[in-house]
């Protein structure tokens, strides 16, 4: 069969800028320098106006992070009208907390500094992540407006964001360790903090989103599975309650029967919930 058809332009194509260096940090015991990378999914055509930026932090217990692993699943958000950036951050065997938070904020400043290239609306930045990355999304949002964790380049840009979407994110490291249904991952909290969370309450508090909920009123959409054996769903419930008490616009969606890293989070229904929440609050 031979046929000539006319194709309408219903959506733009997508570019992928892979492994872009956004910062350089100390490496190999402080004797060298290592690059930190991010990948951007952006749109072919010049857009009529800049687009919201969705910044993604992958999980991995702060110990093994592949910032490209979820890119196929993030295309839904690019198709919905976002520029998407997936960000590498330092592992806990390289640097303890708050290095990871400093990296997240450095990536946001880099992206804002290159907003014209990527067609980003600097006033509409959303952070999202899973597990350890969900913790990082929460901490990045709740420290918006604070300069304590802004380190490195592009300090003329603000690292503030306007919404957070943590998926089964760790809240208080001590609570996560003590109340998890499994003790297989207890060591990750020691590696992150540089000490056992029960032995250093001050250090634990500095990595606990509950310590920062009074800093601003950033909107939150929290997603958590009812059968999560790694991160207690009760911790997300506590975060939700404290956010509400401090006038954050917040929703908590519990996914019935979902476990940690469950495919349920990757379903179109969940993506649409996230998109609708962002469009409502951003």
TrEMBL record:
InterPro entries: AB_hydrolase_fold, BD-FAE-like_dom, GDXG_lipolytic_enzyme. It comes from the Bacteria. Transmembrane segments: none annotated. The keyword Membrane does not apply. Signal peptide: none annotated. Keywords: Hydrolase. One of its GO terms (molecular function) is hydrolase activity. Residues 46-243 form the BD-FAE-like domain. It holds the Pfam family BD-FAE. This is Alpha/beta hydrolase. It comes from Ligilactobacillus salitolerans.
């Amino acid at each position: 069969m031979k046929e000539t058809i006319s194709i309408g332009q219903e959506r733009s194509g997508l570019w992928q800028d892979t492994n872009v260096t956004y910062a350089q940090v100390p490496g190999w015991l402080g004797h060298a320098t290592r690059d930190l990378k991010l990948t951007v999914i952006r749109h072919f055509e010049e857009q009529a106006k800049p687009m919201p930026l969705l910044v993604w932090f992958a999980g991995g217990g702060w110990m093994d992070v592949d910032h490209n692993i979820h890119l196929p699943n993030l295309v839904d958000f690019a198709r919905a009208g976002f520029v998407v950036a997936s960000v590498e951050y330092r592992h806990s065997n390289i640097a303890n907390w708050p290095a990871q938070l400093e990296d997240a904020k450095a990536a946001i400043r880099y992206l804002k500094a290159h907003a014209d290239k990527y067609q980003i609306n600097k006033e509409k930045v959303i952070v999202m992540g899973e597990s350890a990355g969900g913790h990082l999304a929460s901490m990045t949002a709740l420290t918006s407006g604070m300069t304590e964790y802004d380190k490195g380049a592009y300090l003329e840009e603000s690292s503030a964001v306007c919404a957070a979407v943590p998926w089964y994110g760790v809240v208080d490291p001590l609570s996560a360790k003590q109340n998890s249904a499994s003790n297989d991952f207890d060591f990750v909290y020691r590696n992150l903090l540089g000490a056992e969370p029960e032995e250093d309450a001050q250090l634990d508090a500095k990595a606990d989103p509950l310590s920062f909920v009074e800093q601003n009123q950033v909107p939150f959409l929290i997603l958590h599975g009812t059968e999560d054996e790694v991160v207690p769903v009760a911790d997300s419930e506590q975060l939700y309650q404290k956010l509400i008490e401090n006038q954050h616009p917040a929703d908590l969606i519990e996914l019935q029967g979902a476990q940690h890293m469950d495919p349920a989070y990757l379903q179109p229904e969940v993506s649409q919930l996230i998109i609708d929440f962002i469009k409502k609050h951003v």
